[in-house]
Amino acid sequence: MLEIQKVSFVMDDLRLYLDTHPDDLDALAMLKRVHPRYLLQQSNFSPKEMQLRT
Questions:
Q1: Residue 54 and residue 40: Cα distance in Å, rounded?
Q2: How many CB atoms lie within 10 A of CB 11?
Q3: What is the DSSP string of 34-50?
C-alpha cells in the first residue's frame, strides 16, 4: 500500500509541476518512467481487490 501512495504522490506532483512548466524535458521524462508503475499499481490494487484483502 505504501508503494501506491509513493507512486501516486509522484504522479500528482509531476502533473502539477508540468501544468506550470510544460517544456521541462526532465520532468516529462520522469513522467514517462513513473506512469507505467502508476498504472501497474492501480491495476494491482483495484477497489474490488482491496475489498477482498481487508
A1: 20
A2: 19
A3: HHHHHHHHHHHT-HHHH
- The residue among 41, 15, 38, 39 whose CA lies nearest residue 27 is 15
CA-CA distance, 1 to 25, in Å (whole number)? 30
Cell matching residue 54: 481487508
| Confidence (pTM) | 0.69
Angle between helices 2-20 and 25-44 (to 10 degrees): 150
Q: How many residues does the chain have?
A: 54
- Amino acid occupying residue 20: T
One digit per residue, the tens of pLDDT, for the chain of length 54 reads 678 888 889 999 999 999 999 999 999 999 999 999 988 888 877 666 555 554
